[in-house]
Amino acid sequence: MNDLAAPGEERSLYEVRRAIYPRAVRGWFAAWRWAAVWATQLVFYGGAWLTWNDRQAILFDIVHRKFYIFGLVFWPQDVIYLSVLLILAALSLFLFTAVAGRLWCGYACPQTVYTEIFLWIERKIEGDRNARIRLDQEKAGAKKVGLKTLKHGVWIALSLWTGFTFVGYVTPIRELWGEVMTLSTGPWETFWILFYGFATYGNAGWMREQVCKYMCPYARFQSAMFDKDTLVITYDAKRGEPRGKGESKGDCVDCGICVQVCPTGIDIRNGLQYECIGCAACIDGCNQVMEKLGRPQKLIRYSTTHAVEGAPTRVLRPRVLVYTTILLAILATAIVSLYLRVPLKVNVIRDRAAISREVGDDIENVYRLQIMNTTEASRVYEIRVGGLEDIHIEGEGRVEVDATGSRTVPLRVRVERDQVKPGTHPIEFSVRAVGAEKESVREKSVFIVR
User: Fold this and answer.
1) Burial 249-260 (b: 16+ CB within 10 A, else e)
2) How far apart are CA 129 and CA 135, in angstroms?
3) Residue 194 and residue 174: Cα distance in Å, rounded?
4) Long-range residue pairs from 46-54, CB within 8 A, at least 24 positions apart, any chain
5) Stretch (H or E) spanning 447
6) Distance from chain centroid for Cα 155
7) Domain limits, the chain
């Protein structure tokens, strides 16, 4: 086909979308996909309702700037752990892609998962592939309008529940449920429930493969992580060609099942394409046909370029070893850091309004200590200061901080005038939880004498 337009001919710069009606398929990989659907959705929908210490177990309380994950409480100062989590996710994606292609896209990506759920709903209401095609070709009537209305009604209900659950990880979900039931949700909760509901409905119900083919950047750079030892879905052309039925033909009978079950509508027999999300539906479909024909399965299969060419496949190769080493090193460091993490944070701020002042025979500096208790029990903290001879805190050196709370404590620190020379002197504050000696922090500051 000539891609160049003839003189005077107009040609669109964009491909007109062709409706895709994926056919239902059963098999080993379909079972794995549905296992991933159940696992991810049980975690997503169920996780928001779990409780821990009389509170929501997983809650990202942006308003109060606290993030609860079971027994851990994170503050904005712990943003490093979010960075580590994102790095681990990226490295895991690179590793899995280098070893076995688009595993994430085919089994765990939210776009794939929700498209699979929406397709299941569509099949239950409108029927399988041929029934859906016939229904769409029919003129509008009571049956068609009724089925379409029912389908979209279920889609919208699921989408709104998804948006509600998503917001339930930011606003305590039980409180949010009460607000929804009384139609008293705030403007931001209402906006985000509707926004994420609309995004789910639009992406999984209408756009589907368009998201994977045109909006997802991963499809564009995935080939940079592939090599000839990467497991990808391949069609065995030597065994399958020439296609058709008869003694002189290959094993491929050109039934088109591999195309009919593909959620992105490609023909894997044309080779690996960037639109392929690695869901392996074509493998299950082809295996069913081969089984009915009494021929060996795996005409379409997970394989490597080297295996197809008859060369040995290497699993442990440089890029895999590098990704694995870095991933394990960062993961081990993060685990050790979390284990050794002290649930106490202290910030020392000098009072800039009065650098230093004379009080009788003493020189006084004023500080503000911000003490953050990240445990879920109230604590009494003992505050001490050191670094200069006879340096001491004027007044009470103890303070109580509520569970997962913070408190700013003004401190007056004094030194006898005869004990220090003019200038800047390094000092150190120590804050220790009474009855929990391991919860202690030391923070450096300076004492100024004019």
Assistant:
1) ebbbbeeebbbb
2) 10
3) 18
4) 47/169, 48/165, 48/168, 48/169, 48/173, 49/173, 49/174, 53/376
5) strand 436-449
6) 23
7) 28-223, 229-308, 344-449
| Gap between the Cα atoms of 249 and 240, Å rounded | 8
Instruction: Please tell me the CATH superfamily of domain 344-449, with its number.
Output: Immunoglobulins (2.60.40.10)
Peptide bond into 263 cis (omega under 30): no
Gap between the Cα atoms of 257 and 288, Å rounded: 9
| 332 in Cβ contact with 339 (< 8 Å) | no
Q: What is the pLDDT along the chain (450 residues), one digit of tens a residue?
A: 445 555 655 655 556 678 899 999 999 999 999 999 999 999 999 999 999 988 999 999 988 888 999 988 898 888 899 899 999 999 999 999 999 888 899 999 999 999 999 999 999 999 999 999 999 999 999 999 999 999 999 999 999 999 999 999 999 999 999 999 999 999 999 999 999 999 999 999 999 999 988 888 887 777 788 888 999 999 999 999 999 988 889 999 999 999 999 999 999 999 888 889 999 999 999 999 999 999 999 999 999 989 988 888 888 899 999 999 999 999 999 999 988 888 999 999 988 777 888 888 899 999 999 999 988 889 999 999 999 988 999 887 899 999 988 999 999 999 998 888 889 999 999 999 998 878 999 999 999 998
Q: How far apart are CA 83 and CA 67, in angstroms?
A: 15
Residue 34's nearest CA partner among 281, 228, 264 is 281
Q: What is the CA radius of gyration of the chain?
A: 32
Angle between helices 281-293 and 28-47 (to 10 degrees): 150
